[in-house]
Amino acid sequence: MRIGIDFGTTNSAVAVYSANHLKSILIDPQNENPNVLPSLIYIDRVQKSTLGIRAAMQYLQFETGRAVAWRKRKVGEAEIVVSGRGADAVTYFQDLYALVDENAHGRLLQSIKTMLRDPYYDGTRIFERFYTLDELIAAFLYQLKTATEAVVGETCDEVVLGRPVKFSDEDYVNLRAEEILYKGARRAGFTDITFAEEPLGVTYLEHIRSPKRQTAFVFDFGGGTLDLTLAEIGGDTPP
User: Fold this and answer.
1) Closest CA to 210 of 173, 180, 237
2) CA nearest 145: which of 177, 112, 184?
3) pLDDT at 1
4) Once rounded to an integer, what is the mean pLDDT over residues 67-86?
5) Per-residue pLDDT for 235 more than 90?
6) Do 107 and 95 touch, CB atoms closer than 8 A?
7) What is the pLDDT of residues 79-95, one digit of tens each?
8) What pTM was computed for the model?
9) Most exposed of 143, 188, 208, 215 (fewest Cβ within 10 Å)?
10) How do residues 142-190 score in pLDDT, each as one tens digit?
């Protein structure tokens, strides 16, 4: 079965479209809107991940009001070239340190999707483990996949994954972002993965609902991107 996923900066959702009927899936029962999964992930010291509204609740439970204990920790080193070229260059290595809160029970991540437009961001270290960006995205896609399978009663290996029209004005950044999304979907268990620009979803839905041909202005105001689209929809002509 093919499902549609909107992996959003602030919230995520999944739906199944069949026989001209769009069915949203209950994915976060504790959320005010259970058909929407807040794009939050809380990872604790034993690398247990919690998503959605429960991630926010755990963060508030374990990280609010506690004492903070900062410790300086070496995180790597950098090669620094001071001046000159070739044999005349002065090069040295400098240790890099970060302040780490030793009393932290876990770490809350949000707005993960915005990092797709950063060509230099590969992931983040949480305590003793490094998480790649596609691995973090896969956690959300996997929860959306399994929630859908529980409702429809069959395996969902095919997905249409929404993406902004542009992550960046740079073509290589757009290609890299889509590649990371693709890797995340593969990690989540999808084998047939296609992409659709996010304004197309609501455009098509309004097209099949409209008996008359008309011009529509599609306003996709997201947590990280804004897409504006003009489209001819409705009637018997394809949009």
Assistant:
1) 237
2) 184
3) 82
4) 84
5) no
6) no
7) 888 876 666 778 889 99
8) 0.85
9) 215
10) 999 999 999 999 999 999 999 988 888 899 999 999 999 999 999 999 9
Q: Which residues of 117-128 are buried (b: 16+ CB within 10 A; e: fewer)?
A: beeeeeebebee
pLDDT for the residue 87: 67
**Residues recorded for the chain:** 239
**Bridge-partner residues for 99, per DSSP?**
72
